[in-house]
Each structure stands twice: as structure tokens, then as C-alpha cells.
Amino acid sequence: MFRSLQRSSSLLGSVMSFLTLHTVKKYFLPVIEMVPQFLENLTDEELKKEAKNEAKNDALSMIIKSLKNLASRVPGQEETVKNLEIFRLKMILRLLQISSFNGKMNALNEVNKVISSVSYYTHRHGNPEEEEWLTAERMAEWIQQNNILSIVLRDSLHQPQYVEKLEKILRFVIKEKALTLQDLDNIWAAQAGKHEAIVKNVHDLLAKLAWISLLSSLTIYLTVSRRAGQMPVKSSEKSCLN
């Protein structure tokens, strides 16, 4: 299903420049509303099946990108483009919450796809009127508000490729100065008493993060020491990067 929609979106993208404004408004604007509604109405089992089959692709991103490009052809569709971005994040969150390993890998691919996109637009100095609604700041807020890191830390940490995708998210959060000491505490807790492979992967992850210029090794050390001693994170220590 995702693949069929992706192929249709790609085909549409190849002929989009030949479509008149009238054609886009009459025949394709309704499609922009129908596709999200269709995907949102998928049951959890249907969505899990689709996510499992598309674990190595970025089908959702491609579909949303094509719909956004289509909407952008029509003046005054900024709210439509914004709603498509919100829908995209909503679907990613749903995939993370319900999926098995392959589905979560798919969702993590989508998260990192969004991160790459917002990072590009944030550092591009173009026309202010062409600014994207979904910025790096909003993406970092979404990650925190929806407890994305906690969801990702629940399982599959024995898989190196899974941890690599988590690392990309953490690097982004650190860059946006949105990583909290509670996040670090949760990372450490994810390996406590677990299999040797998980312990190694988490320790390696923390070691890599400690080398990022925005996050000092001292912060990592203090957080790990606190967790090892079962000392709670103080409420005043809201963010380790502020």
C-alpha cells in the first residue's frame, strides 16, 4: 500500500510541471486531503504490516513530499502544507508506538529523514517567504513532548543498526540544546541489568556522545555516576545544555 502510494506520488512528481493551476486545484487538491485520511484510518495491524514491508524505504516521507510539492503549486496553501507535516509526525509517532523491530527501523528512518530536512532548511539562507513550517526547533520540541527517546530506548538496543539511528537523533537533540539530564539518566537505565550486548552498545553510545563539543564528558560522567548510585535527577537540572 505504501509502495503503491509512493509510486503514484513519484509519477505525479514527474508530470507536475506540466499541470495547469486549474487542473491541480480541481483534480489533485482533493487527493491531498484523501491520502492522509486514508492512511490515518489504517488499523494498527495494517499499519504494522505496511511498516514491516517498507523497513528499508522512506515511503511516508516520499508521499508527504509529493503532496507538499503539489499543494505548493496552489497559492494560499500554507496551512495545508503545515497540516501535512503535522500528519507526517503523527504517523511516525504511531509507527514507533505499535511496531516491532522492522517497523521501528522504518519509523527511525523517517525521523532521521525529517531531521536531515529541517537541518538543511535551518542552515539555508534563502527567501524568508519560502521558510518551512517544520523547523529544527519544532522538531526538537516534538521529540521531547512525545517522549521519542523513551520510546526508542524500550527495546532493540542489542541491534547495532538500531542504536546508530538512535545516535543520530541524540546528536540532533544535543545540537538543538534540548537534551536533558533525565534523558541521559534514561539512557543509562536502559542498559542496567541487561544483556552484555545492550550494555556495550549503550556504553559505546555514551562514549560517542561525550565527544560532541556541545556535551562535556563531565556531564556524562556525573549523570552516569548519579545513576550508578541511584541518585535522582534534581528538578532544577532541567537541561544539561542550557
Fill in the keyword field for this structure:
mainly alpha; 12 helices; UBP34/UBP24/USP9X/USP9Y-like ARM repeat region domain-containing protein; 0% strand; hydrolase; 242 residues
The total beta strand count reads 0
Gap between N and C termini:
44 Å
Biggest sheet overview: none
Structural class comes to: mainly alpha
Kindly provide the radius of gyration, computed on alpha-carbon positions and rounded to a whole number of angstroms: 20 Å
What fraction, in percent, of the residue positions are helical?
Answer: 55-70%
Count every helix, treating DSSP H or I runs of 4 or more residues as helices: 12
Coarse morphology: elongated
Strand percentage, roughly? under 5%
The averaged pLDDT comes out at 82
Assembly type of the chains comes to single chain
In the predicted model, the low-confidence regions spanning at least 5 consecutive residues are 230-241
- SSE order, one letter for each helix or strand: HHHHHHHHHHHH
Descriptive notes:
With 242 residues, this protein is mainly alpha-helical. It contains twelve helices and no strands. Helix 1 runs parallel beside helix 4 (59-72), helix 2 runs antiparallel to helix 4 (59-72) and helix 10 (181-189) packs across helix 12 (217-228). The chain is elongated and about 60 Å long. Residues 82-211 form the UBP34/UBP24/USP9X/USP9Y-like ARM repeat region domain.
